[in-house]
Amino acid sequence: MSVLSFLTDTASNAVLSASEQSSISTSISTMQSRLGLHFPNGEVKQHFRFGSSTRSTILPRSIDSQSDIDYMIVFHDNSYTPQTYLNRLKTFVEKRYGSSEIYQSSPTIVLELNHIKFDLVPATTNWIGELQIPNSAGGWMTTNPNNFNSTLDAKNKEHKSLIKPTIRLMKYWNATSKFPFDSFMMEKWICGRSFWWLTNQKDYFFAVIDSLSTNWEYSKWINDEITRAKGIVEKVKQYEKDEMPATAEAEINKLFRL
Question: What's the pTM value of the predicted model, to 2 decimals?
Fold first, then answer.
């Protein structure tokens, strides 16, 4: 197997299986029913899934222990503080999911099921209809939760459907490196990069690794992970140049700690 085929296969395999997708769909349907039962009088205006699971960039939990489903619950009344709505969601999951692990991870309520984790995000709308979600300071901030989806879809289409697999590979590396970077911010950073004269998955992935740089503001362990990744890729390139494909493949495995 070449480095190119390894990276292509790894990116293709770093997706939710059919059984995982089916389980998640069942859990979402169950949640929708339970929300309707718990908030029967129009208290909730709408609720929907957003985030990486709607962009095909979510990783299986076997790869990424932090993998979750982002789910927004929009309340009709907007006259209370964010914590009030967080408390309402916590009451909901405690009543309807009593045997599951439940906790607040500001500014969301986390519901841990056996097969997946849900991040429940309360929201309201302001006077002009914009969605608002809690910020880290206890107030509100405006959001357009699925706006990035169309941007990523367009970028992926423009680049031969190689952007999303590249993101999955980088999220895989990020997970095995103990999460030096926020997953969503990394997705946006990759999507915002320019990719010229590249032809295949290896080119795209290596271009992103090459673009990583250490920073004095980072913790030492983050800089060490960046240095390690860049060093591995440089060795892979040299092994391929020296016509040592087996050694190159063994080296690229180290990037994902395989």
Answer: 0.93
